[in-house]
């Protein structure tokens, strides 16, 4: 029996999140399978985290696995289902098992698909053992979605999570994650959460707090340090509420006495005083993420959270005084919050200077969460597909939601969702390469040079094509090549570089192509510019790099619930100068009868 496990990354043109795609859940299953003598492997990291749809598919077809297991989250579930669909068509003998928080018995979006064989609901390790034991038969154990009658999925009922974590092997100590770690280790020291936030699924699948043994945790941290890992991110849902926190911090401080490891995690701050903050500092903590979500009491009651302003501020100050940065998160679209309430929450944090980093996220109605199950009661309307963004509440329209993000940007004087710069267009990354030699760019200087995008190498999921003016005007020669590529690799993020002196008419065929191929990345209507981010057209000249305005943004964006969000075409300009030079403003004005908005663009820093 041959098993391959994988977790597809959060995608971006600069591959930033690929570097952090650590398939922890898949790794637990790999170790369990190997201990049972099963030939199980993780998909090689360069393909899993950077590969195009076809590159991944080809590897799987060559390997001929009997079972493929895929971890599904809201950022990768559609791509995972697309991969499952293609694999099922070409290798029907392969059993496809999906797991992760997207796999729930009431996720209507998921249940429409028939391209997988088994869904694992909740914590996977116990069910996985049962699956391996009964393979190729499908067990009737609880914790599974199985094909039922009349093409419906049949849920076999919840399997309670295991009570002890003691005998779950460590994927990190076993070495299975070695090639997936690039300086950062994600570590669980507990599972389960003491809180019951209404927008969260985690506590529902893992309500009781259970801890991994200290001996194992300290071995993992020591090994990370010895192997040159620079940062450990604790995945524990509320770090300060874990049992025996003092003992854990003392042990971490002993191992990390030279503070070579940077530690970060997530917690509430109300329970952190100066003594605890100092201990965290000694252990090596450099950052703590704090979910404040809203400062309005009624809203917080609706989502089962609390907020004590004085203790919150004391906790933040204690951490900051101990040299630990505080990252505060707020959510827009919670039941009970109007636009003015969201702005008030932002202003409260800013006025009290109670943050080092501040983020605002749109609410997602994630599968099986209380808010999703009670959406009707609260009058919440959300996208029927990932990322399940709320588009209307009784107190907020989609347009007001966008205004909340504008308020963030005006208050913080920064772009909340900056567009990434493709590495092929980034002169400071001259020697950029991807693991496994994956191809991520091609130059088409002459019409006769137009050919396959891959040059024989497997391609990455984000790709840049540089086209000369001569080639651009020979539409017939390149259009079909790009179209074929996008057909086969529907989850591609494509950027096209064109000469700076083209006219907008020259770009029409590119925009036609863009219109035909949408991507889940284009759904975040709260982005205050460049709503269509999966297909971008750039030019470079005189030290500037700019994104041409997308004509799709000349029309309001129509959301699944029928609301229209106003848009305007934006030309984003990256420049090292403080202002955009006048030659460029003239350059754009000459080309557009009604010029687009021209905005300075500061791509995210790695
Ligand atoms: S959001 Fe975090 S603190 Fe709240 S229930 Fe979920 S895991 Fe716990």
The rounded Rg comes to 25 Å
The total of helices stands at 20
Structural class, judged by helices and strands?
alpha/beta
How many angstroms separate the termini? Answer: 41 Å
CATH architecture of the largest domain: Alpha-Beta Barrel
Task: Give the CA-based shape.
Answer: globular
| Poorly predicted segments | none
Q: Strand tally, please?
A: 26
- CATH homologous superfamily caption of the largest domain: Aldolase class I
List of distinct ligands in this structure: iron/sulfur cluster
What are its keywords?
globular; 7-stranded mixed beta sheet; TIM Barrel; alpha/beta; 3 domains; Rossmann fold; binds iron/sulfur cluster; 606 residues
Write structural notes for this entry.
By secondary structure, this protein is of the alpha/beta class. It has three domains: 2-155, Rossmann fold, CATH 3.40.50.2300; 183-362, Alpha-Beta Barrel (TIM Barrel), CATH 3.20.20.70; 423-600, no CATH class. It is 31% helix and 19% strand. The chain contains 20 helices and 26 strands. It has a seven-stranded mixed beta sheet, with helices on both faces. The chain has a seven-stranded mixed beta sheet with strand order 18-19-20-21-22-25-26. A six-stranded parallel beta sheet has the order 8-11-12-13-14-15. The model has no long low-confidence stretch (mean pLDDT 96).
């Amino acid at each position: 029996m041959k098993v391959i496990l994988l977790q597809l990354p959060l995608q971006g043109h600069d591959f930033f999140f690929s570097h952090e795609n650590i398939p922890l859940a898949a790794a637990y299953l790999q170790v369990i399978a190997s201990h049972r003598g099963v030939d199980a492997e993780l998909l090689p990291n360069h393909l899993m985290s950077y590969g195009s749809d076809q590159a991944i598919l080809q590897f799987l077809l060559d390997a001929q696995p009997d079972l493929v297991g895929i971890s599904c989250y809201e950022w990768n579930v559609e791509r995972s289902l697309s991969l499952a669909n293609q694999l099922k068509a070409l290798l029907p003998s392969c059993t496809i098992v999906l797991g992760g928080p997207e796999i729930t018995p009431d996720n209507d979006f998921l249940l429409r698909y028939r391209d997988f064989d088994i869904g694992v609901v909740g914590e996977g390790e116990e069910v996985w053992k049962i699956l391996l034991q009964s393979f190729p038969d499908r067990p009737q154990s609880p914790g599974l979605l199985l094909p039922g009658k009349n093409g419906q999925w049949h849920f076999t009922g919840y399997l309670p999570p295991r009570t002890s974590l003691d005998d779950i092997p460590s994927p990190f100590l076993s070495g299975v994650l070695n090639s997936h770690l690039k300086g950062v280790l994600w570590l669980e020291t507990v599972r389960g959460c003491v809180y019951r936030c209404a927008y969260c699924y985690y506590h529902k699948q893992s309500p009781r707090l259970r801890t991994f043994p200290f001996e194992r945790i300290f071995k993992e941290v020591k090994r990370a340090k010895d192997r040159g890992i620079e940062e450990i991110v604790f995945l524990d849902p509320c770090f300060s509420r874990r049992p025996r926190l003092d003992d854990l911090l003392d042990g971490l401080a002993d191992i990390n006495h030279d503070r070579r490891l940077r530690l970060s995690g997530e917690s509430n701050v109300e329970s952190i005083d100066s003594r605890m903050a100092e201990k965290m500092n000694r252990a090596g903590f450099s950052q703590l993420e704090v979910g404040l979500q809203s400062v309005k009491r009624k809203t917080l009651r609706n989502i089962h959270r609390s907020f004590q302003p004085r203790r919150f501020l004391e906790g933040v100050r204690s951490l900051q005084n101990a040299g630990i940065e505080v990252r505060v998160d707020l959510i827009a679209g919670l039941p009970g919050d109007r636009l003015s309430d969201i702005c008030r929450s932002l202003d409260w944090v800013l006025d009290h200077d109670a943050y080092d980093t501040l983020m605002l996220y749109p609410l997602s109605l994630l599968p099986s969460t209380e808010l999703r199950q009670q959406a009707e009661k609260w009058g919440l309307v959300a996208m029927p597909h990932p990322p399940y963004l709320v588009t209307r509440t009784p107190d907020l329209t989609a347009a007001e939601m966008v205004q909340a993000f504008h308020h963030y940007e005006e208050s913080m004087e920064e772009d909340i969702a900056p567009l990434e710069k493709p590495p092929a267009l980034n002169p400071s990354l001259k020697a950029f390469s991807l693991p496994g030699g994956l191809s991520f760019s091609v130059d088409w200087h002459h019409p006769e040079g137009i050919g396959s995008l891959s040059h024989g190498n497997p391609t990455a999921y984000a790709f840049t094509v540089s086209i000369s003016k001569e080639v651009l005007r020979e539409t017939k020669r390149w259009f079909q090549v790009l179209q074929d590529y996008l057909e086969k690799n529907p989850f591609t993020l494509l950027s096209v570089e064109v000469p700076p002196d083209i006219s907008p008419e020259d770009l029409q065929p590119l925009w036609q192509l863009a219109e035909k191929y949408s991507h889940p990345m284009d759904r975040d209507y709260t982005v205050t510019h460049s709503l269509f981010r999966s297909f971008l057209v750039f030019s470079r000249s005189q030290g500037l790099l700019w994104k041409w305005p997308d004509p799709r943004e000349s029309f309001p964006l129509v959301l699944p619930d029928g609301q229209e969000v106003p848009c305007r075409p934006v030309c984003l300009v990256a420049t090292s100068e403080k202002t955009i030079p006048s030659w460029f403003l003239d350059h754009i004005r000459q080309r557009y009868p009604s010029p687009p908005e021209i905005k300075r663009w500061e791509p995210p820093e790695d």
